[in-house]
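G., the chain you wanted modeled:
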Amino acid sequence: MNNHLNEVLKEIRALEKSVQEEIKRKEEEFQYRIQKRKIIFEEEVLRIQRTFSRGLMKYILEAKPLNVLSAPVIYLMIMPAFLLDGCVTLYQFLCFPIYGIPRVKRRDHIVLDRHYLKYLNVIERFNCDYCSYFNGLASYINEIGARTEQYWCPVKHASGKARPHSRYHHFVDYGDAEAYREKLAELRKSFEDAD
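Predicted structure as tokens:
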């Protein structure tokens, strides 16, 4: 990997650390703590949050008619999502040990914690967790795909238009046949930085 890319990756890690520090600061500001993946708010904070909750009836009556009509289409997407979730989970559990690829932790990607927010009514909480599930599932699948791609075809794209995933920086440059042949075996084992 070239020095410039290493420097950019170092900057990205520093920014990620900064994001985590900001999240910790917000945790203190909004008076909650995370205990065994459960969010616990101070009782006074919960009381204040409840004052900002919109009543369920008011929420439904103020909703745009097309939003209400499109809701069943959105909710029906859960069926293919569950199927896809099951398939990629089964795939990595069966195949990753064969290839020596560390498994992706589903819980690191699919995070359902917005239902702890008392300022959201029951529909808003459900919708928030629904979206969290879908976006988390996309992240989970992306990481499984990234690790698979690193094993089978760790070559960068020519156009540079592909949005890089977590493993992309390990890949050899497009057109560098020598590096591909020299590094393929090593890249297939290079997962020590995978979470």
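The CA atoms of residues 151 and 187 lie 7 Å apart.

Shout if anything looks off.
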